[in-house]
Amino acid sequence: MILKCFCCVYREVEEEPKISKKSSSREYPWEIYTLKEILHATNNFHDDNKIGEGGFGSVYWGRTSTGTEVAVKRLKAMSSKAEMEFAVEVEMLGRVRHKNLLGLRGFYAGGNERLIVYDYMPNHSLIAHLHGQVAEDCLLDWNRRMNIMIGSAEGIAYLHHEANPHIIHRDIKASNVLLDVEFQAKVADFGFAKLIPDGVSHMTTRVKGTLGYLAPEYAMWGKVSESCDVYSFGILLLEIISAKKPLEKLPGGLKRDIVQWATPYVQKGAFDHIADPRLKGRYDRAQLNLAVMIAMRCSDTNVENRPSMMKVVEWLNGGLGRTKEVSVVEDMADEDEYEEAKL
């Protein structure tokens, strides 16, 4: 279905390369751009316009002739793999509409160019704030972090429970959570996504994704289900709370994942040791404890113990309503508070 849809789109663009128009399909209300329009918007893909780069290619900032700011993903030299990922992402993004999913504005497919046009996110990606160029500015206070957790969870819950058919993202990670002007989370990059037909609980497929975020049953056996996204989200939660990377290099070439690092503190009820030191104690302790325990439940190695994303959203929203003010935490959590945080 994806390839059939893509091939039809590709022919339409090739036959009418000089006309930019809206798709006539109600199901896919995107815009088909001309190459000239995108080159003009990005200043011919000038290096000064580049805002990101990865294995897929590069992302450029642009401004359309109407003044709209956009982000343009330019895929690397075409291959059957790149062609498939382009087709999958356009297909998936055309299916979904949610405030916490990155919006597709349109695309271009012609010659050796495959370009996807998105809404521009002025506050960059979550990874930039946790580990990248703006991390030291600590623009993510506790309230923003809680809102990012909830927004990301709601976007993923929509994919799992409301999209038809249901969608598994397969690459939930900090670099794929973008932040708009108000720091609202937008889950992005659907190049690895899978459609799950009704009545199918899991599928076996080639492993895609990022080390440190992969559920063990998926990494070892290629067994993918919504629960794999839940596991990745648990890792992401710990990353948001602590600003530690999912995988950490230790002396002697050893590696430790973020769950291994956090587990001793959870067992002792010392949740404050898990919080990002840059917060300087400015967080709500009940919310911190709850978020950590949700993260641990999501990242359980046993699939049966992981909650659904709907349940995660319910828990996070419940925690957000517990307190309205953030106070400075000076003393450490004790065993009684650990009991209160259990889910």
UniProtKB/TrEMBL annotation:
PROSITE patterns: PROTEIN_KINASE_ATP, PROTEIN_KINASE_DOM, PROTEIN_KINASE_ST. The gene is LOC105129703. Keywords: ATP-binding, Kinase, Nucleotide-binding, Serine/threonine-protein kinase, Transferase. This is PTI1-like tyrosine-protein kinase At3g15890. InterPro entries: CR_Ser/Thr_kinase (IPR052059), Kinase-like_dom_sf (IPR011009), Prot_kinase_dom (IPR000719), Protein_kinase_ATP_BS (IPR017441), Ser/Thr_kinase_AS (IPR008271). The keyword Kinase applies. PANTHER family: CYSTEINE-RICH RECEPTOR-LIKE PROTEIN KINASE 3. Belongs to the protein kinase superfamily. GO terms for molecular function: ATP binding; protein serine/threonine kinase activity. Coiled coil: none annotated. ATP binds at residue 73. Residues 45-316 form the Protein kinase domain. Pfam families: Pkinase (PF00069). The lineage of its organism: Eukaryota, Viridiplantae, Streptophyta, Embryophyta, Tracheophyta.
